[in-house]
Design a protein that fits this description.
The chain is of the alpha+beta class. It is built from ten helices and four strands.
Amino acid sequence: MSSTLVFTLATVPDTAGLRTLYATGDSATPVQLAEIAHLQSRQTGGNDALPNHLQRIAAISCVLYDHHVARIWSLGKAGDSEVQRIRALFETIRQHKPDLVAWDGNAFEIPVLHCRALIHALPLPKALCMDATAVSGVNLMQSLAPNAAASLDALARLCGFPGQTELDSNAVWAAFQADQLADIQQHCETSAVNTGLLHLRRQYIRGDISAADYNAACKRIHAALNHLDTPYWRAFMARWSSIEI
């Protein structure tokens, strides 16, 4: 089993970019700028989802695993800039040269990373220097449900994995404004773990890995969660009905 990096992003409105596009100067607050952008999205698309180029990355969480160990963490710390978090992700990819996995990579993670790298003039690692559809394994949702958007939480729980409480973009934005970075990162880490477990299950049913490899990888992820040792993660693991198949 090669090294695998599962990554998840949490984004908020890029209020600095919106200020530039709307030419408001200092006359509008970040909340007002975000509400204008959300209103435009509701008018044009029927929901609050902003275009990829108007989303700022608030958190990046990862699960990295191989034959020996698994690690679960969020990149950066309180006070770090978006650029620092993106650079940390790119350096992780360059260092480990892993297989990349994301839940909705074609439509969300990869395009957002490309836009933010373009805006901040950040060189992409070679693994990301291609169209999102060409990044192997990066779009797990599409591979599992190609004709419809699938729920990460629902599929995870149906497979016996813990699942998670979904946070919509408005909830992430509210948490960001309240400086609740830890809550956003915890949500992202949970998404990354569930995505990683579903990816392993998909690899097993496709015959890409053996039952022994599958069980060993799940055990390594479970051990990594044990090391986190917080009430949240203990409750998460209590919902994991069966580690082995």
